[in-house]
Design a protein that fits this description.
886 residues, 6-stranded antiparallel β-sheet
Length: 886
């Protein structure tokens, strides 16, 4: 087989038509010859029955005697086998329970008291086992269910068996031994208990001789029969008669001699009490124990004397009647056999329609019926052979049939077309000539193992055509076995998959190429995104610095110009505010496009967020003469609170800008199982075909002159980007001339506690200001001094510490980005190290990086964004000072 598989191969084997026809004709001729020889033999049979009738009766009587005796002997042997099987079943069941007990977690963990209780539970379900014992590798008992847990225990009564189990690591069944605790005869079923790859303990279940005696008694043997159970040494373990005096004794010497030579058998012997008996014994392969059944001779003979006498009388009566009926019956049999012979002769001449009449005695009629069925099967087989031959020849797949020596005996037409070899070129050869050399030896070894274990293999491999060209095939090889289970044939079925294989290789190559291109493109995109993030961080800081200084200078000039030139002051505020809004919107939009904004999902109060939006936009609504209302929304939302508040603020700001009369309303409602926050206005409305455009950058309806009073044109674009980032839906409903409704989806959160902080009255504070931009530092210092605060200014932390004289400031304000690698977080950390971690602090930054914002928040530091709003800064200072005082 190995030589065949090193080259390869299956489907059902196709027999040749002429071979089957030859076999059927041979069978018919043999049958016909038998019929011809039977015809004259019938007369001699009847003559032999009439002339030597007495002799035949005597022989039959003797045969019946031997049969009756043989049946009784075989019955005893079968009883011994059944009893051995019953004992083996009980022992196997005990072995299985012990195997399960040996792996219980309590035993593996060393919880012996728990395991002791579990062992006693198992004994309640056991009819044969009497005790469960756990011993160590030396034979010292650790647990014995015959005694309470913790009782000192002796060595085991069968140390040799324990040592063998420890050494071999296999379960076993002991011979008879004297129990160390009960001091009674026992046998034991033992299993090893494994720990860390070695046998740590031995677990056994002890079976007392008394329980095995009861098992034999319960077998309900015929009266007078004796059953005994012997261990592997021939010692009596249990006996159905006189058990107390028999257990522990050896069997009779002649029985022991037979047991050494044979695993089972029958013999004439004597019982331990000396009673002549017929003995049947059988040894179990599982336990190596022997079951012995003894039948006293008087019981054996008395059981079939009467049936033999009755059989003799009946035989004589039938012999006489047979003589009378012989002539009549012989005539009918001869006629029926002649008809059957005629039909058989016609069949040998090739007549498939030849039929035998169903006449004569029943047996001959049945024989004729079987002949007719054979004729029908012969016609069907011939038709099937023709069909199989057609399928074999017409199959599109190549088929190879080989004998048990892996020599090719037949191939089909598809094989010759796929390989280029002719039929006569391959007959008798091993298929290894098709090998391509592309498969490693391990490939054929795996094929061989699959055929050995399952009788089947299938897979892809490369073959070589006659012209040397390689081609890929998908092949199935099967083993066909004869009635004895030996290999009879190999059959291989294969299809050409060269084109499919090459297409798969092309696809795999293309996938690898595209994967490499995508990886390169992803790497380039990540580089560009990182560069863009660095640019946005720098631009956010560098562009906001002059705006921050300008805002503070405008705030400082307010007291000087408020009376002399209020119009100039208002224009300056308007210009700075418009520039600040435009810059903030552009940077925010760029950060969203760059993907540097990471949402911080948390639960928050929607009512508090709406209140902040209303507080921020109520002055603008009042200035435009609009009614600005909101309905209570006692809802806990779950999303990024800051980004959601920005979305809502932009929608409200947009509604106020484009509403000339009427008002703006904020509310929330549940629709289709989801919560929506809606902003209603009575403004100009939006045409249906323009709704999609309003979320584009710098797209403003009704503002062709680009009036900055109506915004930058980026507010709704930022809303769309933030909603996409948070995976929220935005819906718009509008009627031109009537107003619009903008609705944003809000996922619901859990209950939220609302802490309250006390607020202290603003007082003059000693403030440290660290700012590396001299203009911003001067403007902010002047602004804070104008409201009564004492300000110590420096460009770094090293420049202000000596000036404090060890006295803690009330507040530290620092720009986030300073000279070199120093940041505002470093400055504040140094002050808190000197004056305590509760020192209030504010970071001023133009950086909107979410990671920076979270780091600031985690340290309990206030934040103000550039360009600064002086009122917002003073409010923040007041809140921090109030918390510190509290």
């Amino acid at each position: 087989m190995a030589s065949f598989l090193s080259g390869y191969f299956p489907i059902p084997f196709f027999f040749k038509k002429d071979r089957l026809l030859i076999s059927l004709n041979s069978l018919t001729r043999h049958w016909l010859g038998a019929l011809v020889s039977v015809l004259p033999g019938i007369g001699w049979l009847f003559a032999a029955a009439l002339i030597p009738g007495v002799l035949a009766g005597s022989i039959l009587f003797y045969d019946l005697y031997q049969i009756q005796r043989s049946q009784l002997e075989q019955g005893a042997l079968q009883t011994a086998r059944a009893l051995s099987m019953a004992v083996d079943n009980d022992l196997a069941g005990i072995n299985g329970k012990l195997q399960i007990l040996a792996t219980t977690p309590s035993l593996q963990a060393g919880e012996l008291q728990v395991f002791y209780a579990r062992a006693r539970e198992v004994l309640t379900t056991e009819s044969v086992g009497e005790a469960i014992v756990l011993t160590d590798a030396t034979g010292q008992q650790i647990i014995n269910t015959l005694l309470p847990f913790g009782t000192p225990l002796p060595m085991t009564g069968h140390p040799d068996m324990v040592h063998r189990t420890v050494k071999t690591g296999r379960p076993g069944i002991s011979d008879l031994y004297l129990g160390g605790v009960a001091r009674r005869p026992f046998v034991a079923v033992e299993v090893p208990v494994w720990s860390d790859g070695k046998v740590a303990h031995v677990l056994d279940m002890g079976i007392s001789a008394e329980r095995l005696n009861r098992l034999l008694v319960e077998q309900d043997l015929p009266e007078g029969w004796v059953a005994a159970l012997l261990d592997s040494q021939g010692t009596i373990v249990a006996r159905s008669h006189h058990a107390p005096s028999s257990v522990g004794k050896k069997a009779t010497p002649d029985l022991l001699a037979q047991m050494k030579m044979h695993a089972e058998g029958t013999m004439a012997s004597r019982t331990l009490e000396g009673v002549p008996s017929f003995v049947a014994f059988t040894r179990s392969h599982f336990s190596q124990w022997t079951v012995v059944i003894g039948m006293p001779r008087h019981v054996l003979y008395g059981s079939f004397h009467r049936p033999l006498m009755l059989a003799a009388l009946t035989m004589m009566a039938f012999l006489l009647g047979g003589a009378i009926l012989a002539v009549t019956l012989g005539r009918h049999i001869r006629e029926a056999l002649e008809n059957l012979r005629a039909a058989a002769e016609a069949a040998t001449r090739g007549d498939l329609n030849a039929q035998a009449p169903l006449s004569g005695p029943r047996e001959i009629a049945c024989l004729a019926q079987q002949f007719n069925r054979m004729q029908a099967a012969r016609k069907h087989a011939e038709a099937q052979l023709c069909l199989s031959a057609s399928v074999f020849s017409a199959a599109a797949e190549g088929i190879i049939i080989a004998d048990r020596e892996a020599r090719i005996i037949n191939v089909n037409q598809a094989f010759t077309e796929l390989t280029g070899y002719l039929h006569e070129e391959v007959i008798g050869k091993n298929p290894r000539f098709l090998k391509s050399g592309k498969q490693a030896p391990d490939f054929y070894q795996a094929m061989f193992q699959s055929l050995e274990s399952t009788g089947r293999w299938q897979g892809k491999l490369w073959n070589r055509r006659k012209d040397g060209a390689l081609f890929a095939v998908y092949m199935t090889i099967s083993v066909v076995r004869d009635d004895s289970g030996a290999v009879a044939h190999y059959v291989a079925l294969f299809s050409d998959i060269t084109d499919v294989h090459r297409r798969q290789e092309d696809v795999a190559s293309l996938v690898m190429q595209r994967t490499a291109e995508l990886a390169a493109a992803k790497l380039e995109a990540e580089r560009a995104n990182n560069a863009k993030s660095r640019f946005l961080a720098a631009a956010s800081h560098d562009l906001r610095q002059p705006l921050a200084a300008l805002s503070l200078y405008v705030a400082s000039l307010e007291s000087r110009l408020a009376e002399s030139d209020p119009r100039l002051l208002a224009d300056m505020r308007y210009c700075v505010g418009s520039l600040n809004e435009m810059l903030s919107d552009l940077l925010d939009l760029s950060k969203l496009d760059a993907g540097v904004v990471a949402p911080n999902i948390s639960d928050f109060s929607l009512e508090a967020s709406i209140a902040k939006v209303v507080s921020a936009h109520a002055p603008a609504a009042k200035l435009n003469g609009l009614a600005f209302r909101y309905r209570d929304c006692d809802v806990i939302g779950r999303t990024d609170r800051v980004l959601f508040q920005r979305i809502l603020g932009n929608l409200v700001s947009n509604a106020i800008r484009y509403t000339e009369k009427g008002g703006v309303l904020i509310g929330c409602r549940r629709r289709q199982g989801r919560m929506w926050v809606e902003v209603w206005d009575t403004g100009m409305g939006i045409p249906a075909d323009k709704i999609g455009e309003i979320f584009e950058e710098f797209k403003q309806l009704g503002n062709p002159e680009r009036n900055m009073a109506k915004g930058t044109g980026l507010g709704l674009a930022i809303v769309a980007r933030m909603a996409e980032l948070l995976n929220l839906q935005i819906s718009v409903r509008s009627r031109p001339g009537k107003g619009s409704v903008f609705a944003v989806e809000l996922p619901l959160g859990a209950h939220l506690e609302r802490p309250a902080f006390p607020r202290a009255t603003l007082r003059p504070l000693r403030i440290v200001l660290v700012e590396d931009n001299a203009y911003v530092a001067a403007a902010l210092s002047r602004a804070l001094a104008s409201v009564g605060h004492q300000v110590l200014t420096a460009s770094s932390r090293s420049g202000v510490h000596p000036r404090l004289d060890g006295v803690a400031p009330d507040l530290v304000i620092s720009d986030y980005r300073l000279v070199g690698e120093e940041t505002g977080l470093d400055v504040i950390a140094s002050f808190r190290t000197c004056f305590g971690s509760s020192l209030p602090a504010i970071i001023i930054t133009g950086d909107m990086d979410p990671d920076v914002m979270r780091r600031i928040a985690e340290q309990g530091i206030g934040v103000q964004h550039k360009p600064l709003d002086l009122d917002a800064l003073l409010t923040c200072i007041e809140e921090l000072a109030g918390q510190s005082a509290a």
